[in-house]
Amino acid sequence: xxxxxxxxDGDGHSQTFAAKDVAGIKxxxxxxxxxxxxxxxxxxxxxxxxxSTLIGAVTETTPGSDTGSSGLNGxxxxxxxxxxxxxxxxxxxxxxxxxxxxxxxTVASDDDLQGKLGAxxxxxxxxxxxSSGLNGxxxxxxxxxxxxxxxxPTSLGAKAASASLAVTQSxxxxxxxGSxxxxxxxxxxxSSGLNGxxxxxxxxxxxxxxxVPAALxxxxxxxxxxxxxxxxxxxxxGGMFGSTSAASGGVASIARLVSAASGxxxxxxxxxAGRAYFAFGHNAAASVRYLKLYNKASAPTVGTDTPVMxxxxxPSAGFAFDFAAGIGLYFSTGIAYALTTGSADSDTGxxxxxxxxxxxxxxx
Length: 364
Known about the structure:
With 364 residues, this protein is an alpha+beta fold. Among the domains are: 5-43, no CATH class; 253-363, Jelly Rolls (Sandwich). 20% of the residues lie in helices and 20% in strands. Strands 5, 7, 10, 11 and 13 form a five-stranded antiparallel sheet that branches. It starts with a strand and ends with a strand.
């Protein structure tokens, strides 16, 4: 209602009451009471001034100490000042910063961590496991590293033996290499260390050197010698036509048949060992005729004896045969020949007189 009015109780709480307005004066319709039934005291100007003092004026000055007398406004100013001072003691930002911008901390004097860390002047322990703080322990580690460095070469790269690390082989590796006085194995494949194996190789090379001429000829070629006697007429060294003797390998003789007679014309050119070098002539017949050579010291039995070589003579044409490219064809018993009309070893076909003319067989 419009006549209602609000007053504060002793605790500062607002209470609304019904009133009657009489000539501008509000007269309570009933005595104000609290919930517990006690009469609510009406605030006076004195009480309100006291409340204002407790709250503090807008321009109230901060108390000089945390416990100095002050209203709430001054008290809050004091709290704000202390928070400002606290903020000034905290690093300006998170993360690592300089010492001047960081919290200062220290280990408590009675904390055993100090002993574990070790004093600045702590002495290194005498052994790796002796009691020591971390400072002394690290000194011991540094000492051992210094000793280790002294055992290593001063720099990388090849060094003299006195400045290099000493190493040794395992017993297994030493057996594979072989001892300094190891004996060469008896055979190429016998068990041995590398030292003995190399001795064996050296021995074989020495044996090989003994089989090689001691020096080269003036022309830079190996010297060679024929140590076995060569039977006359069995080997050829040198040119085909360089000599006229059988012993030296040249063409010594020629067996000639000026014109073939009727028959097989069996004959021998040489009755001992020798070489046949060539045969040439002319086949006047209109059909192929055959020249057969025999290893025999007498005239062959045509059709029975087996020829060493059978040569086909083209019809109505000349022929020329070079045996073994000039080296000659060797006959160990003798050189014999015959002429037939057929190629079979057993053929005995007779020629017509004059079928073959100018037959020449060179031999030695």
